[in-house]
Design a protein that fits this description.
Number of helices: 18
Low-confidence stretches: 21-28
CATH superfamily of the largest domain: MetI-like
CATH architecture of the largest domain: Orthogonal Bundle
CATH class of the largest domain: Mainly Alpha
Mean pLDDT: 90
Largest sheet: 6 strands, mixed
Radius of gyration: 27 Å
Distance between the termini: 21 Å
Bound molecules: glutamine
Number of strands: 14
Shape: elongated
Helix content: 55-70%
CATH topology of the largest domain: MetI-like fold
Amino acid sequence: MNRLRALNALLALLLVTLLLTGCERQESEALPTYTVGMEATFPPYEFYRGTEIVGIDVDILKEIGRRNKVSFKLEDMAFDSIITAVQTGKVDLVASGLTVTEDRRKQVNFTRSYAGAKQVIIVPENSSVKGVADLSNVRIGVQHGSSGDTYVTEHIREPERYTNGALAISAMNAGKVDAVVLDNAPAENHVAGSHGLVILPEPVVEEQYAMALRKGNDKLLNMLNITLDEMDADGTLAAIIEQHMRENKPEMQEQAEGLFARLADDFQTDFIKNGRWHYLLDGLLVTVEIALVAALIGIVLGFLIAVIRSTADLTGRLRLLDWICRVYLTVVRGTPIVVQLLIIYFVIFGSVDISKVLVAMVAFGLNSAAYVAEIIRSGIMSVDRGQMEAGRSLGMSYGTTMRCVILPQAFKNVLPALGNEFIVLLKETSICGYIALQDLTKGGDIIRSQTYDAFLPLFAVAAIYLCMVMLLSHLLKKLELRLKKNER
Ligand code: GLN
């Protein structure tokens, strides 16, 4: 009875959380709202100031919104999924310092261009690389999926690809690459913010930036084009760009002398300045929320699958359900979770406006269920067959014996393995950044992209995961002990 009540409470909790996260984004807004995809580590076009995204693209959008009485909701996402996002309707448009290229034109429609740009080479001050001609023999860092990536790959050599330009720069600071090819405006910002880097005068290639829309979305395209024309004609466009270019210089940190003074300094920049610790705290909450609900989905669904499969094994009934479960297990365990997450986000929920947190909960829950199912099934199988017979001969039905005799023992046997699965699940959520969720890992990434310091943010993120796992292990051990006591 108690168990039933606990299960009910669990299900109710699950339902409420799902409803809450599902509704989260649907507050009614008076103005028609368009979602905009951008990768917000691209100063001065889009970057974080505190927890807010600001920049040239943001100001241009605000002005377009003001003139047309519409509003734009910004979505920070990985640059390499930005074109897919607009194609699949995940976002209505992309405004992300996006270069117009012929290849991209086949996939999406571009607005008129609103800014000129170029790809430039960044190198350490004393580098032997002096121009484009010297690039063919050195390791080049680029941002994955960017026009710089395409150009270097097609015309120079295979580059090292990083999630964003800032990470490519940190890689160069750490000696992992010899040169970075990047758009000029963020390059200037990054060089101003780090020590000992220069931009070579000779550009790699000239480009134009424009916004991108799904093909066929002509109404929005027209609105953007007309307003961009107006803003060009009345000088607003130039004014916005000029103002941000002028401010495009993060204050340079004086480098402290000595290891400890340097660490203290970095700590200040990484976590205290601009309230950057918020990225970690907010990220932590998202991580915990996703892991918790996913674990619940995993347990409930996993339990169900395990019972169906064992029943089919033990009694020969439920053959069809068993077959479906087996297909499910094969598919889920046979494909990487990142791919599953992307498929669920971009394909299955492609055209639905659904909260990303919810998508992640479902994706991780469905994935975990497969592993939980096999763990619990192995538990059921490990219970002596005589127990079932004993139960049945006492006059209990198959269901009652399963519920009251077999499952409690099975659960106890597999508790350590289940605990292990939860630990894996918690850490697996660190791939949420792929669908632009700001979980703990992504929080650390954002800090790294702003401070170019890899050391402290990565260690802080690792330490927080470690603490969570230790806490979880502790709780599981307690539960195990409690169950053991009940045995006697
Ligand atoms: N201009 C580059 C491109 O379109 C990079 C843009 C960006 O990183 N936001 O590929």
